[in-house]
Amino acid sequence: MADMICAGFGGQGVLTMGLILAKIAMDEGKNVTWIPSYGSEMRGGTANCSVKITDGMVASPFIKHADIVIAMNQPSLDKFMPMLRPGGTLMVNTTIVKDAVRRDDIEVYGVDATEIAQQEQNARGANIVMLGALASAGKLLTHDVIEKGIEAFFASKGKHNPKNAACYERGFACCARLG
């Protein structure tokens, strides 16, 4: 189904974003892997995760060529865009990533994830905004499946933040194809 990389600074929720997607896909009966990677700095350092979602068996959890890359910052874009397959999808947090993407063989979508999260008074919700954008691009799972999966993920941890729903809906509505 998809080999995906979610990447950004520590504290942007990229590991949680990948974990949410893996959990949702697992609940949908898919086989998944989720491999986190982060620098020793935690907040402010680099963080990324690879997520594989498939109907079949996962031969290897490692990703050499990604179908989807979600870049929450410029260093992540620079590092992971070359791994994106031709025909792949790049999701960009345009609040932070200002450089134009220069590849004609991929689809590029942008959303002001960090700005939207701040507007919704949910500073840690930029990852949820990006999940809404991913649903809007129609590249993985449906709007309703992701929306319910986000709520279930946080509910399983005893948390409920109604601002997450607002961030998700804004990401869905504000996602735009670039170029």
Automatic annotation (TrEMBL):
Locate the Pyruvate/ketoisovalerate oxidoreductase catalytic domain: which residues? Answer: 10-172
Renumbered to this chain, the signal peptide range is none
One of the Pfam families matching this protein, by short name: POR
Q: Name one GO molecular function term.
A: oxidoreductase activity, acting on the aldehyde or oxo group of donors, iron-sulfur protein as acceptor
Write the record's keywords in alphabetical order, separated by commas.
Oxidoreductase
| NCBIfam families named among the record's database cross-references | PorC_KorC (TIGR02175)
User: Can you name this protein?
Assistant: 2-oxoacid:acceptor oxidoreductase family protein
Q: Origin organism of this chain?
A: Lawsonibacter faecis
